[in-house]
């Protein structure tokens, strides 16, 4: 006998589990199905983000940053530690503990909100009386019927043609987070968020890191001024960044991998690495979903086709997160999940893609929201820009980290904030103020007239806003 629910969510990543919680809060009977499992075969909800993405990478970034500070910066504070050694197994073990804490926290939230969790792979079977038939394949197979289905199956790492991930020498983000030793020579194909973050982790721990990027510009989607500063700082730290590269043959062996490529000048090159991280983007995950069985439409790139409300072509079937159009960001997935849960009960859930923040957790951190200066120039929109360097911020000096700046872009006539770009300490936290301001269509003057605590890094946001009208107080 099939079990009936108002809402069945397929996938317990950020979009899925948040959608399930919001639907339960709104009085729906909710089930969620997820196939992720931990080393012992138990459930591991949280998707890529919790298991092999956002959470574990930040754990290793934090650990490796401690190593960097101890080796190179503690002495500036009068702290002598002698030789610094790294217990990599313990570091990776701590990362695993952080992941499990998040897994367990999500399972607790399911119980708290009376959400039924099924551990297994879910797939559509047919449209049936009462909604949609869903089959769960796992240790305890189940048949479910849902009035509404929310598909939140996420994405998978994109492999290079002819260079499949073996997670031994050719690594996805998964393998790159679980190395048992620090490679002497590490290659990274792709200078995006994942490549730069993971490259930074292993560079801090002692690897010689070479990044090969196909695009001729570094961080092309980022504000140009920020991108130039980021390239300068990351190169200064020791990352070898090669742009305009065309990858040729990749030849793995038992203990190394050789990459043939053409450099920006058109010269043939070859490099051998102990390990190679391939981070060239991600592809939507619809494997085993049964999309063909029920006629769920995919677009030309393999994403589930949805409208502006995240409705698919099938009645009462919705999709959110990485498996649909838009930025592949956990927080974007969460917002879509909440919006869909609210739409299901007749409310008017909304996601503003113009105020979705982006963050790269390198050191210095990079964060931005809204339009870049080059985009404003290309569109012909008249704007004003205000910059404030962390070098002139008292809190940054006390921290010993004065790298970077805050940049505010505002409409030349109305002063409405159009974009904010930050490179520097705790940029990931500072960007939230800009998101709130833009969501309420604030002007740069609004931020400039708000009292900020002193001394704080947030004063740099105020100063950059004041600088739009060339009236910064401390620079």
Automatic annotation (TrEMBL):
Record EC number: 1.8.1.4
Active site: 454
Catalytic activity line of the entry: N(6)-[(R)-dihydrolipoyl]-L-lysyl-[protein] + NAD(+) = N(6)-[(R)-lipoyl]-L-lysyl-[protein] + NADH + H(+)
Enzyme class, broadest EC rank: oxidoreductase
Cofactor: FAD
Cellular compartments annotated: Cytoplasm
Keyword flag Oxidoreductase: yes
Note: The active site is a redox-active disulfide bond.
Protein name: Dihydrolipoyl dehydrogenase
Species this protein is from: Pigmentiphaga aceris
Organism taxonomic ancestry: Bacteria, Pseudomonadati, Pseudomonadota, Betaproteobacteria, Burkholderiales
Gene responsible for this protein: lpdA
């Amino acid at each position: 006998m099939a079990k009936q629910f108002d809402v069945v969510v397929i996938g317990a990543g950020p979009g899925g589990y948040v959608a399930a919680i919001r639907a339960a809060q709104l009085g729906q009977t909710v089930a969620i199905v997820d196939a992720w499992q931990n080393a012992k075969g138990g459930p591991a909800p949280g998707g890529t983000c919790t298991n092999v993405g956002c959470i574990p990478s930040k754990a290793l970034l934090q650990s490796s940053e401690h190593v960097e500070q101890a080796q190179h910066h503690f002495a500036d504070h009068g702290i002598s530690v002698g030789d610094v050694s790294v217990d990599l197994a313990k570091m990776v073990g701590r990362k695993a503990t952080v992941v499990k804490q998040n897994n367990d926290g999500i399972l607790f939230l399911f119980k708290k909100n009376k959400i039924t969790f099924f551990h297994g792979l879910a797939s559509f079977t047919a449209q049936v009386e009462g909604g949609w038939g869903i089959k769960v394949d796992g240790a305890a197979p189940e048949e479910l019927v849902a009035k509404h289905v929310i598909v939140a199956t996420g994405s998978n790492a994109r492999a290079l043609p002819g260079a499949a991930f073996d997670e031994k020498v050719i690594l996805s983000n998964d393998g790159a987070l679980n190395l048992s030793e620090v490679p002497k020579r590490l290659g990274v194909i792709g200078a995006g968020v994942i490549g730069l973050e993971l490259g930074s982790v292993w560079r801090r721990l002692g690897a010689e890191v070479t990044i090969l990027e196909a695009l001729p510009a570094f961080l092309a989607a980022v504000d140009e001024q920020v991108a130039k500063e980021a390239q300068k700082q990351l190169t200064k730290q020791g990352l070898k960044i090669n742009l305009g590269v065309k990858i040729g043959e990749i030849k793995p062996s038992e203990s190394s991998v050789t990459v043939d490529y053409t450099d920006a000048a058109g010269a043939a090159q070859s490099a051998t690495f102990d390990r190679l991280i391939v981070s060239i983007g991600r592809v939507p995950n619809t494997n085993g979903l049964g999309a063909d069985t029920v006629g769920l439409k995919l677009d030309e790139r393999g994403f589930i086709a949805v409208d502006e409300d995240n409705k698919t072509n099938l009645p009462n079937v919705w999709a959110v997160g990485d498996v649909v159009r838009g930025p592949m960001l956990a927080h974007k997935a969460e917002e879509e999940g909440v919006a869909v849960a609210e739409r299901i009960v007749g409310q008017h859930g909304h996601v503003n893609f113009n105020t979705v923040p982006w963050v790269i957790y390198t050191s210095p951190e990079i964060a931005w929201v809204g339009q870049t200066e080059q985009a404003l120039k290309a569109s012909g929109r008249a704007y004003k820009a205000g910059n404030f360097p962390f070098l002139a911020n008292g809190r940054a000096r006390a921290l010993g980290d004065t790298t970077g700046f805050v940049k505010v872009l505002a409409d030349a006539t109305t002063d409405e904030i159009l974009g904010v770009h930050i490179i520097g300490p705790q940029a990931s936290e500072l960007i939230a103020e800009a998101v709130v301001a833009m969501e309420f269509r604030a002007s740069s003057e609004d931020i400039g007239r708000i009292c900020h605590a002193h001394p704080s890094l947030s004063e740099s946001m105020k100063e950059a806003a004041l600088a739009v009208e060339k009236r910064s107080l401390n620079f």
